[in-house]
Amino acid sequence: MFEKVGGATAVRTAVTVFYERVLKDDTLSAWFEGVDLDRLAMHQRAFITAALGGPAQYGGRSLRVAHAGLGVTDAAFDALAEHLAVTLLALGASLDVVEEVRSRLNALRGEIVEAPTQTGPDPQPS
Ligand code: HEM
């Protein structure tokens, strides 16, 4: 997978482009506000690495523990995944590759998202 998108150089370019797109997205800034740029860059690398199924470079905390209490929504998860898909397509990745990335990320959704999108009315109105 890593090689399918063009290897290390292409992945580095993808991280840079993806990073700029995410920083400009007002719907995502709430989560990354106050996170310093080094940690943010690390986050983007971890995200892309997970998406490509590359070697996990982050040790320590599990994804579930790392995201506990952040209140990440499905919409935010989708927005991040969408930025990556657009970035990869812009860099010339094939649709097959982008689909594979989407399903790889989706497999991790349950560990990250803890505020599922509300559908319908409040189940217990006061
Ligand atoms: C598959 C998807 C994702 C992966 C692989 C991933 C990976 C990571 C990793 C490795 C950490 C650092 C853990 C640590 O420092 O011990 C982290 C923290 C964090 N993640 Fe994610 N993440 C994903 C999705 C998301 C999403 C969708 C959001 C929000 C929109 C998000 C927001 C954050 C924030 C705010 C932190 C804490 C940053 C800090 O203070 O250092 N993550 N994530």
From TrEMBL:
SUPFAM superfamilies: Globin-like (SSF46458). Its cofactor is heme. It holds the Pfam family Bac_globin. Keywords: Heme, Iron, Metal-binding, Oxygen transport, Transport. InterPro entries: Globin-like_sf (IPR009050), Globin/Proto (IPR012292), Hemoglobin_trunc (IPR001486), Hemoglobin_trunc_I (IPR016339). Transmembrane segments: none annotated. Belongs to the truncated hemoglobin family. Group I subfamily. This is Group 1 truncated hemoglobin. It comes from Luethyella okanaganae.
